[in-house]
Design goal:
The protein is α+β, with helices and mostly antiparallel strands.
């Protein structure tokens, strides 16, 4: 059986990440980047697909675990009949190659421990060749080499099985294990394996504490905000500034279902909220790096604008399936890559314009060609905004005239006009103003359901969509407009166990719009949008309650996935989810 999603913690070196379970097992690790093939993939299959467990020989869940305050250093404590031990897991911020360090401390008595490593390269499929050197065990498969060093003798049970290290820790005794990746054609021992564990532990803790100390938020939920910001930083690909939506793929929105997507890439949706979250929290360098990544990624013809790109800005993310992986709790198919790159989504034009406008207002240096980019994007949007698209939720059903997409077309025109005024560039303002007015009128006419008293999901539909909660935040209508207030009231229909679905289910418990089978959980980000909208419309106590319901479903180390199942009391979807944590920070600021 797979562990519950909420049983996993995250460690990261700002270029990739590992998922560590409460049983001491790392069940997901992609090397050397977030979007590289996994070499530990038990998360999406079985132990035969790769894991690295460090725990007492008598297996079981840990007694307790927590991150060291204001860091991404994870401490897990184990108690047995004979004593107590602690395992400290972390990844030093990348300097040369990725490295995981696992430090075991005896706290009392004596505890028999075991490290068991089973590597399976190419997403849990390829068994490596394993050899021993004077100081390490080396596993090689194709372009990849993984080196394991330990403060003691390591033995390989079988070339196709596991590498085992049995040891006993007593009170005051410390032992370290280190795993590092390198290209297989390089024969040298990776440099991180030569640095004392105590040194890199101190340096890693100092790095995160210094970074967290820059947080400007001083409200009542500071611990939750700092943990969310650390998580967002951990999901940043430092060389480019891109931020992945999550470090995982194919964790399902419906257990046993097909809603399994690869989130190890960078989405343009929520670009502005990402920037806003970083800027208001005091992280200008990260905000600038994210903007730089965005501007590089979208370079090219406006017609080729995508909703998702790779961490390096790459456009081709071919979607494939992995039939050799059983899927998380039998949820298949397991997918790598994401075909959303080929979808047409109007809303990304508004996201880009909104992000550029926010950056200009914040005084972030803008590229010299920015205004040419604005004119090119607006020229294309003026010709195509009337068309249908796949919408914010990237539905795999038929294209529709989604209301949120039209609102974001309005946002694009509005922000282009505002940037023109700031920069003294008003040559196209007449055309953009006419477009803005036309879009606004059409949305208020075609996207409004008089009978229900709410904005709906798409023209001609009566279905609700949580994206309508963003209308006041985007400035499309003021929060006190009766149409906004009516829309917020109508969203009670999307509530489930105190949380908010992204759109409604049909009578069979499935969604009517997205072309997929099965239901899904409530979306964490939508639940937080609801809290924001409640606050904006004057219902601050209800907003606070909605926010604190979300805080209550974080896991034991403060992490959120994409969705929450109120019936089963479980997290669903890829985890930890950047959009969920961004929304948490934004709501905390709004309510403070």
């Amino acid at each position: 059986m797979n562990l519950p999603i909420e049983d996993y913690a995250l460690i990261s070196d700002l270029e990739t990440a590992a998922m560590v379970g409460r049983n001491g097992s790392i069940d997901w690790l992609c090397l050397p980047r977030f979007d590289s093939p996994a070499c530990l993939a038990a998360l999406l299959g079985t132990e035969d697909n790769g894991f690295w467990r460090v725990s007492p020989v008598a297996r079981g869940p840990c007694a307790s675990r927590a991150y060291r305050p204001d860091t991404l250093v994870l401490e897990t404590q184990w108690e047995s009949d004979t004593g107590t031990a602690r395992v400290t897991d972390f990844m030093p911020p990348r300097t040369e190659v990725p490295c995981i360090v696992r430090v075991v401390d005896g706290l009392s008595g004596s505890v028999s421990m075991r490290s068991e490593l089973r590597l399976r390269f190419h997403h849990g499929r390829v068994v490596p060749w394993i050899r021993d050197t004077d100081s390490c065990t080396v596993a090689v498969a194709g372009p990849d080499a993984v080196w394991l060093s330990a403060d003691g003798p390591v033995r390989t049970l079988d070339p196709e099985d596991s590498t085992i290290f049995d040891f006993t820790v007593t009170a005051g005794h410390r032992l370290a294990l280190r795993l590092a990746w390198s290209p297989s054609h390089l024969p040298e021992l990776p440099a991180p394996l030569c640095v004392p564990a105590e040194t890199v532990l101190k340096e890693t803790g100092d790095f995160w504490r210094h970074w967290a100390g820059q947080c400007r938020y001083q409200g009542p939920w500071r611990d939750a905000v700092v943990r969310s910001l650390i998580t967002l930083k951990a999901l940043t690909y430092a060389p480019t500034g891109g931020i992945v939506a999550a470090p995982t793929t194919s964790l399902p929105g419906c257990l046993g279902g097909e809603r399994n997507w690869d989130y190890r890439f960078c989405w343009l949706r929520d670009s502005t909220r990402t920037l806003s979250c970083l800027l208001r929290s005091g992280y200008r360098d990260e905000a600038t790096a994210w903007l730089d990544w965005l501007v590089r990624a979208i370079a090219g013809a406006p017609a080729d604008l995508q909703t998702v790109y790779g961490v390096g800005g790459q456009r081709l993310l071919p979607e494939t399936e992995a039939p050799w992986l059983a899927g998380y709790e039998g949820s298949r198919p397991v997918r790598f890559g994401n075909s959303a790159v080929s979808q047409f989504q109007l809303e990304v034009y508004g996201e880009v314009m909104d992000a550029l406008h926010l950056s200009l207002r914040a005084g972030i240096p803008m590229p010299a060609h920015m205004w040419s980019l604005v004119e090119a994007l607006m020229g294309h949007l003026r010709r195509h905004w009337r068309g249908s698209d796949q919408g914010l939720w990237q539905v795999r059903g038929p294209r529709r005239q989604f209301v949120h997409s039209k609102v974001m077309a309005w946002v694009a025109a509005d922000r282009a006009l505002r940037m023109g005024k700031l920069l003294g560039r008003n040559g196209s303002s007449g055309k953009w103003r006419a477009m803005r007015d036309e879009v606004h009128g059409e949305v208020c006419r075609e996207g409004w359901d008089t009978e229900q008293g709410t904005f709906v999901q798409s023209y001609g539909s009566s279905a609700l969509d949580a994206s309508a909660l963003l209308i006041p935040r985007l400035g499309f209508l003021p929060a006190q407009d009766e149409r906004v207030r009516g829309t917020v009231r109508a969203m009670r229909e999307l509530e489930h166990g105190g949380f908010v679905r992204r759109y409604a289910l049909d009578g069979r418990g499935a969604h009517r719009v997205d072309g997929m089978h099965g239901s899904e959980g409530a979306f964490v980000s939508c639940s937080l949008w609801y809290a924001d909208a409640l606050a904006e419309t004057g219902h601050r106590e209800q907003a606070r309650e909605a926010f604190e319901r979300v805080l209550a479903v974080r896991n034991d180390v403060g992490l959120l996935s994409e969705q929450w199942d109120p019936d089963a009391g479980r997290q669903l979807g890829n985890a930890p989810q950047a959009f969920s944590h961004i929304a948490l920070v934004e709501t905390a600021f709004a309510l403070s």
